[in-house]
Design brief:
The protein is mainly β. It has helices at about 40-45, 165-170, and strands at about 10-15, 20, 25-30, 55-60, 70-80, 80-85, 85, 100-110, 110-115, 120-125, 130-135, 140-145, 150-160, 175-180, 180-185. The structure holds 5-phospho-D-arabinohydroxamic acid and zinc ion.
Length: about 190
């Protein structure tokens, strides 16, 4: 027998905050400017400070995007806030490889996970510290921060899932989350 070296993995996730450190960790930031057409009140969005950060995503992508069988790991941080009465949220997407599923889990804060299948059937799940969310194949997903603190949500998704933002940008999500209200949006 011979000694085998024990390695320290390159990336850590702080279980209390979801912050990823080490490398390589990439960061994507979405500001009010980037979210044109996402909120119901586009006037309110266009009139406010465009540089305000609505959410950011830290991710560890150890294999090239598109790698079959690969997995990515990340945390999304959605700031508290609203555009008009509508809570801050992510753009939301189907996966480009539509059959790709994903896990989310709540780390910090309070929010909702909006899920919409191909028939536009909706499901809304409460996100809280420790909640585990399976996002099935062919299902669009969007995070909403309904609380007063940052919402941090962990995620693990296939490296070849990709993002299809177009269907949501064109047809909407079928549900709007205002402070204290979850409303079905008809006929879009
Ligand atoms: C997440 C999302 C992240 C940001 O990592 O990409 O929460 O949301 P949008 O991509 O909708 O802007 C994920 O679901 N990856 O597949
Ligand atoms: Zn996804």
């Amino acid at each position: 027998m011979s000694n085998l070296r024990v390695l320290v993995p390159p990336v850590s996730s702080d279980l209390a905050t979801g912050v990823l450190t080490g490398g390589p960790v990439s960061e994507d930031v979405r500001t009010i400017r980037d979210l044109k057409g996402v909120f119901f009140d586009e006037n309110a969005r266009s009139e406010r400070s465009q540089d305000e950060v609505v959410y950011r995503v830290l991710s560890y992508q150890p294999v090239p995007q598109g790698t079959s069988g690969g997995l990515f790991f990340g945390t999304t941080f959605v700031s508290p806030g609203s555009v008009g009465e509508e809570c801050f949220m992510t753009k939301g997407h189907f996966h480009a490889k539509a059959e790709a599923s994903e896990y989310y889990w709540g780390v910090l804060g309070e929010g909702l996970l909006l899920l919409m299948d191909r028939d536009r059937s909706l499901k809304v799940e409460k996100v809280a510290r420790g909640s585990v969310h399976f996002i099935p194949a062919f299902t669009a997903h969007r995070l909403v921060n309904t609380g007063a603190e940052t919402l941090a949500v962990g995620a693990c998704w296939p490296a070849d899932a990709g993002h299809d933002y177009e269907a949501i940008a064109r047809d909407g999500f079928g549900v709007r989350v205002l402070k204290g209200q979850v409303l079905r949006e008809e006929g879009r």
